[in-house]
Write a structure and sequence with these properties.
single chain, Nuclear Transport Factor 2, Chain: A, 6 strands, globular
Length: 118
């Protein structure tokens, strides 16, 4: 699942729209769901739009994995941070990713532990 997490975060960090879409198409199931406190979307197009919106809001920041992932069956739970490269993260959270029978992401449930104040 380490590879899955790296590829997942690569989708969120990729700023080139064409490359990001290629990563999404390779990693996510066609009808995948992404749900966190700020968004609930289904399908690759909506996931791509969500990632682009996050990048527009947090330009120049990157997602990095934190700690060790916990996996069983077709699901994994992992922590991540969003911040300037090498800097203090401004957002910290964890996601639970569930894969389908083909190994593509079918569902991601996201949780936010630290967010910037308004």
């Amino acid at each position: 699942m380490t590879d899955l997490i790296e590829r997942y975060l690569a989708c969120w960090n990729e700023t080139d729209a064409n490359t990001r879409r290629t990563l999404i198409d390779e990693l996510w199931a066609a009808d995948a769901e992404y749900i966190d406190p700020m968004a609930e979307v289904r399908g690759r197009d909506a996931i791509e739009q969500t990632i682009a919106a996050v990048q527009a809001q947090f330009g120049g920041l990157v997602f990095t994995p934190v700690g060790v992932a916990d996996s069983h069956h077709r699901q994994t739970r992992f922590n991540w941070a969003l911040g300037a490269p090498g800097g203090e993260p401004i957002v910290i959270g964890f996601d639970v990713a569930v894969t389908d029978e083909d190994g593509r992401i079918a569902t991601v449930l996201g949780f936010l532990d630290k967010v910037p104040s308004a």
